[in-house]
Design goal:
It is built from 9 helices and 2 strands. It is mainly α. The protein has a two-stranded antiparallel ribbon.
Length: about 240
């Protein structure tokens, strides 16, 4: 009981230490990437390649997570990830309730097929249990993997601590591996079993998604690095860091 109370106190202080905008962006990206995973991307004649639309925002989750690992540590980043998962489950519950409320979506007001469109929109908004399950398991596993790898790589590059080289290497490597794991786990839990994807499509989706998200990390990591350095300079998060010490 004492240990639980200590952990809850740490999370409370952590939530008050992470800049609100950063926390909001991270949680929003987690909610959006799980919702957008409902839509697949048409890759044309490349039948071996299958992607879902969650890829357009999932890079932001890992970018902000890497920033939190650098400043607050892997345990803190994982705790924030769990908070985001709980909030995402709550949002999914709200969506499900809304889909059960009698009424019609604006797009269903058409002369033919309105009822069918309305049911389809309700099903999309509410999601399905296997998509929610798959996305939750995949993100939890990949966030833990990302945070641990990021921290370990930082220790290996200790002599370069504080430089952009250290920040970029720990971010690029951890993101690439963790994003591949995230995409692969989701693909095998959901897409392989329920959407009829082949094993090749699952692996291709995981690899392509990881590459796209790595490119996004490379593009935006200089911004992330500058923000983290500003946090360090201004003592952002010192209350939490002093508590865990």
């Amino acid at each position: 009981m004492k240990r639980l109370s200590k952990e809850l106190e740490e999370i409370k202080v952590l939530l008050g230490s992470v800049p609100p905008l950063m926390l909001a962006l991270f949680i929003l990206s987690v909610v959006l990437m799980n919702f957008l995973a409902n839509k697949s991307i048409d890759t044309g004649s490349w039948t071996w390649l299958a992607l879902d639309s969650g890829i357009v925002i999932s890079w932001l989750s890992f970018l902000t997570m890497d920033m939190m690992v650098k400043r607050f540590g892997p345990k803190a980043a994982t705790s924030i990830s769990i908070v985001a998962i709980v909030i995402n489950l709550g949002v999914s519950l709200v969506f499900m309730v809304v889909s059960m409320i009698p009424g019609f979506w604006g797009e269903s007001y058409v002369e033919v097929g309105g009822d069918l469109i309305n049911r389809a929109l309700n099903n999309t908004i509410s999601g399905t249990w296997y998509i929610l399950l798959g996305s939750t398991i995949a993100f939890l596993a990949s966030s833990v993997l990302n945070n641990i790898l990021n921290h370990i790589i930082g220790k290996l590059l200790k002599k370069h601590s504080g430089t952009f080289l250290e920040y970029s290497m720990r971010s690029y490597i951890s993101t690439m591996i963790a994003q591949f794991a995230d995409n692969l786990i989701f693909a095998f839990i959901v897409s392989y079993n329920f959407f009829g994807w082949s094993i090749i499509q699952c692996i291709a989706c995981a690899a392509t998604g990881a590459l796209v998200e790595l490119v996004c990390e490379i593009i935006f990591s200089p911004i992330g690095y500058r923000v983290v350095r500003k946090w360090e300079k201004n003592g952002v998060g010192d209350k939490y860091l002093n508590l865990i010490k």
